[in-house]
Write a structure and sequence with these properties.
Chain lengths: 129, 645
């Protein structure tokens, strides 16, 4: 439901420049390895006020704040997966572009294999006949 | 007055569609040729009247007649002239009118083209097309009338979404629609083929040009959409696995599979039932794509004209057509035998493997796109299925397909020898190995996916070129080889631009410079500029390499007047080796500007590859015409290897 409300809100015209009082600049981390890990994670976290964008790609203020959060946590030595877990706990599964591996997503993750299996069986029957 | 004429023309076109669907149905049933023959003039009339309606709407946009509600809501007098015209289809009603226009013109095309399968079959095809158009006319006239008046007329319109004021996106919908509608013709041929029980090589030969043309246009349309997202959305990405992108990708995947399976029907009279099912699926997915884009059911970066109520109408329409076609299929499938047999190692089985893998990709895209919605509707959690999922599942399949695409064209029909394969594929294997070694040593690529990507691109490119280099090429196999080469080129572009990309993100003052690999970019100045309906801040970045100025990048942050909206315009400069891409961010208040700079190696190859694919598809329209020096033995064409019986 939250997603639906969000989606409906997003259909309204963009508010423009008005609401953007403090702009925090993107400051890459000093350590290139840590920065690369932070970037990789940012590409997989969803900007919650945008239409289907990763926070890495978004100009929205909230995405900006989330990027700062990711960089701070990564530079403090947290593992990217720990950071992701923190975001998921805070904003729900929706925030991560990687769907969770649980029973309710089993079908999603099994889909490629099921399709391959089904096709393979049909194909084998077709050729053997 | 003119909008009313347009509205009237639309009703006349709908009446013509009604005649086109009913007259042949009764005529064929009662065996009255005079009645079934009415389908031809009805289809031509439908085309003419729809064109008139479209012209009337275009006129309303060009003269900015704001008493037409659609124009008032989507246009503005300050908009550049070109976008006055393209604005006609940059909204829901107008784009649907464009859809029926293309559909009506395709119907008229079928009506006037030579009826290779006889007048009876043509009448049946036209009646199916008439029924399909009728639904869309009903949708237009009852639920989305583009000619609705707005009284009193406002003095100014509300303007067009600035993101859509772009040449790429102006051409993108017509291309996609031509593709979708081409698939609707294939759908009509499939349904008519089942009803008339004529599915076989001659049927496949008559249907295939429509599929090839539709496929080429879809390829171009999707590539253009991707290119637009790349330069206009300003994130430097080119494919986001966004629901709307997936909605266009799914019919393309089905059409790709159909294009290959219909070749099997044409050459070997096998896979008939499967091909029919694909033809039904391809158009069903096109309708579903339009439905997804228009209904706003899924959040997307590309959703521009959204209305849930209309979604319901489209869904009912879709259910009727898909349900109807599948019912006919269920009855006909028993009659339409699968056709001739083939061995495990044969061109047919390679094409079946291609179809299988394409269908798996299609299934994964469908499940991935719909799963979050379904889960939520079932009261479950809200999840996101994004790029990581799709890349993880689909990239490996694409790599396997690239391997098979190198081998399949060398296999013979029915039962293939394998002795010649090693020698014929040696150059491709050497090229693949070389590509991997070069990527590993010279460029320091370490990711296994990227290495396989380079290898696959080289393998497929060399294998495809070796087909082109052979004598006795038909247009058909030249088209196939070019399209496969295009896939290789796109894979190379996608792999290189991802794996070898360089990136810098800095806050700079005017006069500052950054070093990114061999490039040094200096911020020369940041100044305001004005366009016809926007103002912008434009930065000038002087990029030098080894002391020589190689490019001036001009990224902008644009503020449109009507509607008031901000967009970023990337500043780009490119060579065949790659492209410098820059985005101007916000100022921090102390005179510093956020500047984002990338070098994306070979990124343009992604779209050049798609162009090659589309060109190959159009060449294949030519069929079995000889392209180069003729060679003896007609039965050899398209099958480079003599069949080992």
């Amino acid at each position: 439901m939250k997603a639906l409300v969000m989606a409906l809100l997003l259909l309204l015209p963009a508010p423009g420049l008005a609401a953007d009082p403090v702009y925090i600049a993107d400051v890459p981390l000093e350590d290139p390895v840590a920065e690369a890990r932070a970037k990789a994670l940012m590409a997989e976290l969803r900007c919650l006020t945008c239409q289907n964008q990763a926070i890495l790609d978004s100009n929205a203020p909230q995405a900006q704040t989330m990027r700062v959060e990711v960089r701070e946590r990564i530079s403090a030595g947290e593992d990217p997966e720990e950071v992701r877990a923190w975001f998921v706990e805070r904003y729900g599964d929706w925030v991560s572009f990687v769907p969770p591996a649980r029973t309710d997503t089993a079908l999603l993750w099994a889909a490629p294999f099921l399709f391959l299996l089904l096709g393979g069986v049909l194909l084998a029957r077709r050729i053997r006949r | 007055m003119i909008p009313e004429l347009g509205h009237f023309a639309l009703w006349l076109a709908a009446a013509a569609a009604l005649l086109q669907s009913v007259a042949p149905t009764i005529g064929l049933w009662r065996d009255e040729e005079a009645l079934s023959g009415l389908a031809v003039p009805a289809a031509v009339a439908q085309g003419l009247f729809t064109a008139l309606a479209f012209a009337a709407l275009t006129w309303a946009f060009v003269v900015s007649d704001f008493s037409v509600a659609l124009v008032a809501a989507n246009s503005h007098t300050m908009k550049p002239d070109m976008y006055l015209v393209t604005g006609v289809w940059a909204n829901h009603e107008g784009s649907l009118l464009l859809w029926v226009l293309v559909m009506a013109l395709a119907g008229a095309g079928v009506a006037v083209a030579p009826a290779t399968l006889g007048p009876r079959f043509r009448a049946r095809v036209l009646s199916v097309q008439g029924i399909v158009s009728l639904g869309f006319f009903a949708f237009l006239l009852f639920a989305s009338n583009p000619f609705d008046r707005l009284i009193p007329a406002p003095t100014e319109g509300q303007g067009l979404n600035p993101l859509l004021q772009d040449l790429g996106l102006a051409v993108h919908p017509p291309l996609l629609y031509i593709g979708y509608v081409g698939l609707s013709v294939a759908f009509a041929f499939a349904v008519a083929g089942m009803l008339e029980n004529v599915v076989g090589p001659a049927w496949a030969k008559a249907t295939r040009p429509w599929v090839a043309g539709a496929w080429a246009m879809l390829t171009l349309g999707i590539a253009l959409g991707s290119y637009w997202a790349y330069y206009e959305l300003g994130w430097g990405g080119w494919w986001f696995w966004d629901p709307v992108e997936n909605a266009a990708l799914m019919p393309w995947l089905a059409a790709t599979a159909l294009l290959h399976s219909i070749a099997v029907v044409m050459k070997r009279d096998a896979l008939r039932a499967w091909t029919l099912l694909l033809a039904v699926a391809a158009f069903s997915l096109s309708m579903m794509g339009t439905f997804i884009v228009r209904s706003g059911l899924l959040t997307s970066v590309h959703a521009f004209a959204v209305d849930p109520a209309r979604g319901l109408f489209l869904m009912i329409l879709m259910a009727l057509y898909i349900g109807g076609a599948l019912t006919i299929y269920a009855f006909a499938a028993g009659r339409v035998a699968e056709g001739r047999q083939f061995a495990a190692v044969s061109r047919e089985s390679a094409l079946v493997a291609n179809n299988l893998l394409l269908t798996v990709i299609l299934g994964v895209v469908l499940v991935g796109t719909m799963y979050p919605m379904a889960l939520q509707a079932a009261g479950g959690a809200q999840i996101s299925v994004g790029p990581p999922y799709f890349n993880m599942t689909i990239v490996p399949i694409v790599l396997v397909m690239a391997f098979l695409m190198g081998v399949a064209p060398l296999l013979g029909w029915r039962r293939s020898a394998t002795g010649h394969l090693a020698a014929r594929l040696l150059p491709a294997a050497v090229a693949a190995a070389l590509a991997v070694v070069v990527a590993l040593t010279l460029f320091g690529v370490r990711g296994i996916g990227a290495l396989l990507g380079f290898g696959a691109a080289a393998w497929l490119a060399v294998a495809s070129i070796s087909i082109l280099a052979k004598r006795g090429l038909t247009l058909n196999s030249a088209g196939m080889a070019l399209a496969h080469l295009g896939v290789a080129v796109s894979i190379l572009g996608a792999t290189a631009s991802g794996a070898l990309q360089r990136e810098a993100l800095v806050a700079m003052r005017v006069g500052d410079a950054i070093q990114m690999g061999p490039w040094r970019a200096e911020l020369m100045d940041v100044r305001p500029i004005a366009g016809p309906n926007w103002t912008a801040v434009e930065a000038r970045l002087d990029v030098r390499r080894g002391g020589d100025s190689v490019a001036i990048l001009r990224p902008q942050s644009r503020m449109f007047v009507a509607p008031a909206q901000e967009t970023t315009e990337s500043g780009r400069a490119g060579w065949w080796t790659g492209e410098l891409y820059s985005v101007l961010g916000q100022p921090d208040g102390t005179g510093q500007w956020q500047v984002h700079l990338w070098f994306k190696p070979m990124v343009r190859l992604i779209w050049w590859g798609a162009l090659l694919m589309a060109f190959g598809g159009l060449l294949a329209l030519g069929g079995r015409v000889r392209a180069l020096k003729p060679r003896r033995g007609v039965e050899m064409s398209g099958s480079p290897i003599p069949q080992a019986a």
